[in-house]
Write a structure and sequence with these properties.
Layout: H1 9-20, E1 37-40, H2 48-60, E2 65-68, H3 84-91, E3 94-98, E4 104-106, E5 118-120, E6 123-124, H4 139-143, E7 147-150, H5 153-167, E8 171-175, H6 185-188, H7 191-200, E9 204-210, E10 227-233, H8 236-242, H9 249-261, E11 266-270, H10 279-293, E12 298-301, H11 308-320
Parallel strand pairs: 1-2, 1-3, 3-7, 5-8, 8-9, 9-10, 10-11, 11-12
Antiparallel strand pairs: 4-5, 6-7
């Protein structure tokens, strides 16, 4: 027998979403991201609220070139550049606003030790420049390596709601598999929508993976312990060598401490572990010091996870250093 929930949180959340597009939230510039071009792709002008949303994002970067491409899906926005690495870095300076219909998926990968899980995508790709990034090797990013914001957050949360209500038990929905979960939040304000949605939901739970320090929208929200925040970390020597254009380690840890003080469950993902000289001692000291600073719910350790295309980019970047 299928249990039918009498609680439909999306009805209220939909109103919250509509208000969020017009409640005076001012989009703020994102640290470590300065797009030269903003592309308004398919779906970004389909409703008045989306037009207003796109407008306030464009206003945050008045120096950017605005391109209207309303007939182009977000995945078909071509990035100029003869070489793969040229398109990669041009994409890091391109922001695409569009609509994502297949936004909630169940990971069903085989051949690795990672568990399968539900994940969703209000964003695509990432403004940071980690040299080991596996996203650079995915099919969609390889063709159009732009940073993406999806304007249909209401549709995305409705899908999460429907799936969670069918499962009828507490189920985590992961934000951070195909993007950084917080990096663009000052621009969108999506956390002000998502965290309350998950806080009220009887089954859906949110897990966010990030390197971001943009936590301002999180600190005053009632999360009801339904949102877990997980930071991607590495020893400082690794961050400096392999994670250019990312928030410094010290600032990430400070952001974790502030969110822990706000009552969020905090996790750390130390991945990839990179076998530098004396790596065992380096990582042991790093983890020991980390545990002194933050009461972590969980630590995940892992190696490099990448695809052939991403490995090619890694090799080219190493040769350029």
């Amino acid at each position: 027998m299928v249990q039918i929930s009498m609680f439909d949180p999306f009805t209220e959340s939909a109103m919250t979403v509509c208000r969020s597009f017009s409640d005076g939230y001012q989009s703020r510039r994102v640290p470590f991201f300065n797009p030269q071009t903003i592309v308004l792709a398919q779906g970004s002008n389909s409703t008045p609220s989306r037009i207003q949303f796109a407008s306030r994002i464009c206003n945050a970067y008045p120096e950017s070139t605005i391109i209207e491409a309303f007939d182009a899906p977000h995945s078909k926005v071509a990035i100029a550049g003869r070489r793969l690495i040229d398109r990669h870095y041009a994409g890091k300076k391109t922001l695409v606003l569009g609509e994502l219909r297949d936004s909630v998926r169940l990971s069903q990968e085989t051949g690795n030790s990672c568990p399968n899980y539900w994940h969703f995508s209000p964003y695509g790709f990432c403004p940071y420049d980690c040299q080991y990034c596996y996203l650079a090797g995915t099919i969609g990013v390889k063709f159009s390596p732009s940073v993406k914001v999806f304007v249909n957050i209401d549709d995305i949360l409705e899908k999460v709601n429907c799936i969670a209500n069918k499962i009828v038990r507490p189920t985590a929905f992961y934000l951070g598999k195909l993007q950084d979960g917080l990096a663009l939040d000052p621009l969108t304000g999506f956390c002000r929508i998502m965290v309350p949605f998950f806080a009220e939901h009887p089954y859906a739970r949110l897990t966010v993976l990030t390197k971001s320090i943009s936590i301002e929208n999180l600190l005053s929200i009632n999360h009801n312990n339904h949102t877990i925040l997980s930071w991607s970390l590495n020893p400082e020597c690794i961050c400096k060598e392999y994670e250019p254009n990312t928030p410094p380690l010290k600032n990430r840890i400070e952001a974790m401490q502030k969110c822990a003080a706000a009552g969020y469950p905090i996790r750390a993902m130390i991945m990839p572990i990179i076998p530098i000289d004396h790596w065992q001692e380096v990582y042991e000291q790093f983890i020991t010091e980390l545990l002194k600073k933050i009461n972590l719910q969980r630590i995940t350790l892992g190696g490099i996870c990448s695809y052939k295309t991403a490995q090619s980019l890694m090799n080219r970047n190493v040769l350029a250093l």
